[in-house]
Specification:
Helix 9 (175-188) packs antiparallel against helix 10 (193-205). It is built from 11 helices and 2 strands. The longest helix is centred in the N-terminal third of the chain and has 25 residues, at 11-35. The chain is mainly alpha-helical. The chain folds into 2 domains: 1-138, Tetratricopeptide repeat domain (Serine Threonine Protein Phosphatase 5, Tetratricopeptide repeat, Alpha Horseshoe); 152-225, Serine Threonine Protein Phosphatase 5, Tetratricopeptide repeat (Alpha Horseshoe), CATH 1.25.40.10.
């Protein structure tokens, strides 16, 4: 139950408290990531930069997966929970908590936060990108496709977005669409070894072994540079 003092807080004061809790949670998250190194890697969800929009450079980043039961990770999650109690409609906070949950491997909870954020702001491409990544991580390829299509419509310059779309389309057996997406990623970034390899996989599935071999070779050459 909210006490009388809290009831008389202004929106500005609540926002200040939420911002302090959010910063604390971010610092705890960083500490947890440093304190619990792991040889395993996981797709990292894009963090917000405070205004509800993510840093595009983090979309395909990989990092050590913290121990979900570590005290630092749980403390950071508690801080995010507290901040969202202050500002439940904050896109920035929902994105940050979803990113933290994703790093902990708690994808169902991350998905719930992102779907809530999308209800609040359907046009937010950062949210759609993060939601698409969660679906990919869970193997829900068909669910990822519409979100990733929206992302490439808005960010057609991003080779990572095209690569993710290619991955999803390949898994739902849209081979022509997957090949086109992988090709577009490699056109934008000729050094995108995974996009080249993805073309090889699709070409193999299309029974074009010579073309597939050529793409595998190019992928190895690019990766070796």
């Amino acid at each position: 139950m909210i006490n009388d003092q809290r009831q008389h807080e202004t929106p500005k004061e609540r926002a200040r408290v939420a911002a302090e809790l959010q910063e604390e949670a971010r610092q705890l998250t960083e500490n947890a990531m440093l304190a619990t190194p792991s040889p395993q890697t996981t797709l990292r969800l894009p963090h917000s930069n405070g205004n509800g929009h993510g840093d595009g450079k983090k979309k395909n980043g990989h990092g050590a997966k913290p121990d979900p039961g570590s005290s630092e990770a749980e403390r950071a999650l508690a801080a995010f929970d507290a901040a969202l109690a202050e500002q439940p409609a904050s896109i920035s906070l929902l994105l940050d908590r979803a990113s933290h949950l994703g790093a902990m491997g708690r994808y169902a909870a991350a998905r719930a936060d992102l779907e809530q954020a999308l209800l609040l702001e359907p046009a937010n491409i950062t949210v759609r990108t993060a939601l698409g990544i969660v679906f990919l991580r869970k193997g829900l390829w068909a669910d990822a496709v519409p979100h990733l299509r929206r992302v490439v419509e808005a960010e057609g310059w991003s080779p990572t977005a095209w690569f993710y779309l290619g991955e999803a389309l390949n898994h739902v057996d849209d081979l022509d669409g997957a090949l086109a997406a992988f090709r577009r990623a490699a056109e934008i970034d000729p050094h995108h070894a995974k996009a080249l390899y993805g073309q090889g996989v699709v070409l193999d599935r299309l029974r074009r072994p010579e073309d597939a071999t050529s793409m595998y070779r190019r992928s190895r050459e690019v990766a070796a540079r």
